[in-house]
Amino acid sequence: MSTFKDKVIIVTGASSGIGAGAAVHLASLGGFLVIVGRNVDKLKETADQIEAAGGAEPLQLLADMTNEPDVKKIVTSTLAKYGRIDVLVNNAGILETGSIENTSLEQYDRVMNTNVRAMYQLTMLATPELIKTKGNIVNVSSVCGIRAFPGVLAYNISKAAVDQFTACVALELASKGVRVNAVNPGVIVTDIHKRGGMDEEAYAKFLEHCKTTHALGRPGDVKEVAAAIAFLASDAASFSTGVTLPVDGGRHAMCPR
Ligand code: NAD
After folding, report:
1. What is the C-alpha separation between 167 and 180, in angstroms, rounded?
2. Mean pLDDT in residue range 52-66
3. Does 142 map to a domain?
4. In the predicted model, is pLDDT for residue 162 greater than 60?
5. Which residue of 62, 74, 94, 96 sits with most ligand 1 atoms within 8 Å of its CB, as the best mutation to test the pocket?
6. Residue 130 belongs to a domain with what CATH number?
7. Residue limits of the Ketoreductase domain (predicted)?
8. Which of 155, 189, 152, 199 is nearest to 17 (CA)?
9. Separation between Cα atoms, residue 152 and residue 150, nearest integer Å
């Protein structure tokens, strides 16, 4: 229960899915959570889950990650309340479908601004604080960062960028005692695919198909990613930095034959 005792942990995109699951798990392990999202009611739901799991009342921050002043406010509000940052979980992200034949620059900008630029800005602003605490960063990437898939072009590029960002910043901050890692989930049951345009029927088929596209024969659960995030953020991973850790039921290791 005390892995993250007194640690101040920021989680973006904490109002749903992997971000909410990670926030609840990290709070249940003793952390003081700063949960960031755009929807007041959904953030409150995460806050209620945190308290139900025995965690301390989290700081709830409304921010659009593509709005620069909002991102600045995440750091200033966290420091105003807690005076420190120990862990940054860069989780907020969007998925859009589109191939080189039907994508658009607007789509490219939306996906890259949310999945990469916002992470770049928040990490840049949090870094001086993480250096003071010898803290660490966990970025939420995807199996799409390490393997190529057709039909989600901008998303794949964005997650490959997240992986390179992870490795480069890990090297830049290693001498300062700050670790930087990423998790690369396979298909995890959340709302992201439906938000990305799948209807219920297509989503049901997609999940069925996951039984063949993931070596372990199923899609993953939010809790399985939350556990990997907590591991990388904890002292148990004290000699790991620059890691991109698949949490994907073996999907990254598969090749069609
Ligand atoms: P989700 O849609 O439930 O979570 C994404 C969160 O990011 C949401 O809370 C959303 O509101 C937030 N967000 C998006 N744009 C934002 C913005 N401009 N400002 C503030 N918040 C914003 O889906 P999820 O599956 O939990 O996704 C979390 C992360 O996991 C994403 O980075 C996603 O790419 C990654 N991921 C998900 C899967 C999967 O299969 N679910 C697989 C690999 C990677």
Report:
1. 7
2. 98
3. yes
4. yes
5. 94
6. 3.40.50.720
7. 7-186
8. 189
9. 6
pTM: 0.98
Give the span between the Cα atoms of 129 and 52, in whole angstroms. 30
Any domain includes 250: no
Q: How many residues in the chain?
A: 257
Q: Using an 8 Å Cβ cutoff, are 195 and 97 in contact?
A: no
Going by the DSSP 8-state scheme, the letter that residue 35 receives in this structure is E
Write out residues with Cβ below 6 Å of ligand 1. Answer: 13, 15-19, 37-38, 64-66, 91-95, 114, 140, 142, 185, 187-188, 190-192, 195
The residue range of the domain holding 159 is 8-190+222-243
Pocket-testing residue among 11, 12, 18, ligand 1, by greatest number of atoms within 8 A of Cβ:
18
CA distance 195 to 82: 34
Q: Encoding tokens for residue 220?
A: 């993953």
Total domains in the chain come to 1
Q: What integer pLDDT is reported at residue 17 of this predicted model? A: 98
Using CA atoms, how far apart are residues 53 and 28, in angstroms rounded to an integer? 6
